[in-house]
Amino acid sequence: LSAYAGKEEAMFKALVKKYGPEPEGAAPPKPSTPTTVSSDYKERLTRFYQQYAPDKVGSVDATLSTYAGKEEAMFKALAKKYGPEPDDKVAGRAEVNKASPPMVPASPPTAGPTGGGDYRVRLTRFYEHHAPDKVGSVDTALNAYSGKEEAMFKALVKKYGPEPPDTSNDLTEDEQRADAAFKERNASKYSKAGVYEGRLR
């Protein structure tokens, strides 16, 4: 080139005449693009971990970086270890179910006590029959066994005997009024209900 300074075109013409036409210039090499994590692989791996190993979902990017270029081999190894890849529709349903837990039907209201009506009346009648000295502790007992009244009555029946029948309806209206009035007047005087019941009868 120094010898043909200023006469380069003439030099190329002589070279073309001697050797042939100039070769076409080679295309410049394309710049290599950095390897990026495929969004498809990321979605697949996230879906896989959500199905089989939820605790590893946070390591998806790190795992894909480790297996860059070998993603399919990685998925084969995972399928061999955990199971087949989950379908994206199935995974979507699983996510919906995870986000919204199933509704639990409310328990139907429990029926009230049977065979005696009001617990206070039942317990008072029970104590009057089996343990008159405990009539004054009816309210305390009911508070202690609130919500467990039937269990309390079962324990009492086991300890003392069967519940006494409700005989209040056997009395006439006048007798019931007289009985109630007598009990009210003498409640503090007589600790045993059987005493005044015997007097009325």
Give an overview in words.
54% of the residues lie in helices and 0% in strands. It has 10 helices and no strands. Helix 2 (39-52) crosses helix 5 (88-99) and helix 9 (173-186) packs antiparallel against helix 10. The longest helix is centred in the N-terminal third of the chain and has 14 residues, at 39-52.
Topology:
Elements: H1 8-19, H2 39-52, H3 60-66, H4 71-81, H5 88-99, H6 119-130, H7 138-144, H8 149-160, H9 173-186, H10 193-200
Main features:
201 residues; mainly alpha; 10 helices; rod-shaped; disordered C terminus
Radius of gyration: 48 Å
Number of helices, counting only DSSP H or I runs of 4 residues or more = 10
Q: Write down how many β-strands occur, each being a DSSP E stretch of 2 or more residues.
A: 0
Our estimate of the beta-strand percent is under 5%
Termini, distance in Å?
A: 145 Å
The average pLDDT score comes to 75
* Approximate shape: rod-shaped
Largest sheet: none
Helix and strand sequence:
HHHHHHHHHH
Percent helix, as a range, is 40-55%
Low-confidence stretches: 32-36, 107-117, 195-201
